[in-house]
Amino acid sequence: MNRTEDKIKQRILVVDDSEMNRAILADMLGGGYEILEAENGLQAVELLKKLASNIDLVLLDIMMPKMDGFEVLAVMNKYHLIQDIPVIMISAERSASYVERAYEMGVTDYISRPYNALVVRKRVLNTLMLYAKQKRLVHMVADQIYEKEKNNDMMINILSHIVEFRNGESGLHILHIHTMTEILLERLCMKTGRYGLSQEDIGRITVASALHDVGKISIPDSILNKPGRLTPEEFEVMKSHALVGAQMLSQLPLYQDEPFIRTAYEICRWHHERYDGKGYPDGLKGDEIPISAQVVALADVYDALTSERCYKKAFSHDRAMKMILGGACGAFSHLLLECLKETQDRICEELLVASPERRSEQLHQMVEKKLYKKELRMAGYSIGQMDANEDKKQFFLSHVPVISFDYSAVTGQAELSDCAAECLGLESRVLDIRGSRWTEQAGPAAIQILRLLQETGPKDPERTAEIKLQLKEERIPCRVVVRSLWTTEDPPQYLGAVGTALPVNQKKEYKT
Question: Tens digit of pLDDT for each residue in 157-182?
Fold first, then answer.
C-alpha cells in the first residue's frame, strides 16, 4: 500500500480486548479502510491523543481490562472528541441499561454480538457518510459566518473611516476603540455580573463602537479640524455630533428593533456623558449611562490622549493613565478604572500590533468562538493542551498523597485520587454515581460530601465541613472542601464538582 492510497482511506480504530474479535471486524470491513487496533481502553485513549484529527470512526467494546468502554467515552466527552469522532459501541452486552448509557454518552450506534457482516459494513458506511457531511457543513457554515462578519465589519468601518478622514484622525482609531472596548468588557465581566453581559453583548458593543462618532459627519471642517482651542460657540456645534449620530440611527427606516441599532444608538448619544453627571447631551449620572457608552467613552479618551491630533501631540501611555486616573479627562466609574489599570499591559500590547491584518485574524477567532458556542467543534481541538492537563492530573492523583475527587456531570463519573479510593475502600479510582448502587460502595462519608455539594450553587459554589474519613485503620476528622462548577451562560449550566480533604490535625512540613 503506497502513501497516497494510505491518505485516501478512512481510518477506523477498533477497540476490543479479544484479538479474535478485532480480526473478525477487520475482515468484515474489508480492505477499503485503514484499521488501527487497541486491546484496551488505555491504548485507545493514547491513540486518540496522537491521532484524533486523523481517526474517522471508533468501534468500541464495553468490557475490557484497565479501562472499559464507558471510561473511554468519558475521556472523549471530557475533551469534546465525541462531537467529531463517531463511536459505534460493539458488545455482547444486550442489557437495556448498557445500551441506554452508551447512547447517553454520545455513541452514534450500538451493535451487539454475534455480528452480521452486512449490518456491520452498512452501519459503518452510513456513520462515516453522516459525519463526513457534518464536517463539510461545519466548514460551509464557518465560511458563511466569516464572510457575513467580514462584510458587516467592512461596511461599518467604511462609514467610520469617512468620519475619520474628515476629522484628520489615524486610520487605526476605529481598530483601537474596537480592541480596547473588547478588552475592558471582558475584564468587567470577570469582575462583576452587575451588568449581565453575555458574549453576544460584548461582541455587539465592540462592533457598534465603530459608530461612536458617526455624527461628526455633520460638523463643518473648519471646526472639526481646527488646530487651536474651540470657542464656546464652536464647542457647542462640536457637541452636537452626539445627538446627530443618535438621530441618524433612530431615523433608519428599517432595523429599529435590532439590538445592534439600539446599542449603537446608546453609544452615539451618550459616549460623552460623565459618571459625575457633568457630561453631555443629557447630563446622565452614574449607571444611568448605559455600560456600552461608558466603556466606549473610556476607550475613546485613552486613544485620543495617546494618538496625535491636529491640535496636539501624542501623550505616552504612562501620562495618559495618570491623566485619566487623576480625573483630568472626565469622570468614570471606579470599576471601569480598575479594569483599565488591570488590563493596561494587554492594551499596550494589543494596540501596538493593531492593523487591518490583525482585525482579519480577530474575525477568524470570533467565528471560531461562535462555532465553539454551538458545539460545532472539529476533531483535534487542543490535543496538546489535553495531553498536558492529563499528565498533570495523573501526576497529582498517583504520586501526591492527597484525598481528592473530580466529578463530571457530562459522564456521571467521579475520578478519585489513589488516596481517596483507598480511603473509601474502592478498587477503582473511577466511580459511576448516576445510579443508586454507588452509595453502597462509598458509604456514609460520600453521602455527607454529596449533601455538602447539594448546598452549593452558581453564586455560592464552595462549601467546607469537617467529616470523619477512614484513613488506614481509623476514622479521622478531615477538613473537606468542595466546589461545584458552572458555565458562564445565563442561566448557568452545571458542569460537575471537585473536592479535597486534609486531616484536621495534620502538620505541614516544607523543606527548603
Answer: 555 556 655 565 545 778 888 889 99
Bridge partners of residue 463, in order along the sequence: 482
Q: Which three cell numbers stand for residue 286?
A: 452614574
Nine cell digits for residue 325: 486616573
Find cell 460551509 and name the residue.
140
CB atoms within 10 A of CB 131: 19
Which of 255-275 are b and which e, b meaning 16 or more Cβ less than 10 Å from the residue's Cβ?
A: eeeeebbbbbbbbbbbbbbbb
For residue 214, what is its C-alpha cell? 458617526
Does position 15 have pLDDT exceeding 90, yes or no?
A: yes
Query: What's at 151, amino acid-wise?
Result: N
Return phi, psi of residue 58, to 5°: -120, 125
Can you spell out the DSSP letters for 412-471?
TEEEE-HHHHHHTT-S-SEEE-SSSHHHHHH-HHHHHHHHHHHT--SSS-EEEEEEEEEE
- The mean pLDDT of the chain is 79
Q: How far apart are CA 181 and CA 43, in angstroms?
A: 47
Cα–Cα nearest to 213, from 284, 278, 309: 309
Neighbours of 419 (CB within 10 A): 18
d(CA 467, CA 448): 8
b (16+ CB within 10 A) / e for 449-483 = bbebbeebebeeeebeeebebebeeeebebebbbe
Does the N-terminal peptide bond of residue 491 adopt cis geometry, omega within 30 degrees of 0?
yes
The yes-or-no verdict on residue 422 having pLDDT over 80 is no
Sheet containing strand 474-486, edge to edge, reads: 430-432, 413-416, 403-408, 494-503, 474-486, 462-471
- Secondary structure E strands in 39-150: 57-60, 87-91, 109-112
Residues 441-487: pLDDT tens digits? 556 777 788 888 888 888 888 899 988 887 767 788 888 888 888 87
Would you state the pLDDT for residue 389?
47
pLDDT at 55 over 80: yes
Bridge partners of residue 471, in order along the sequence: 474
C-beta of residue 120 within 8 angstroms of C-beta of residue 112: no
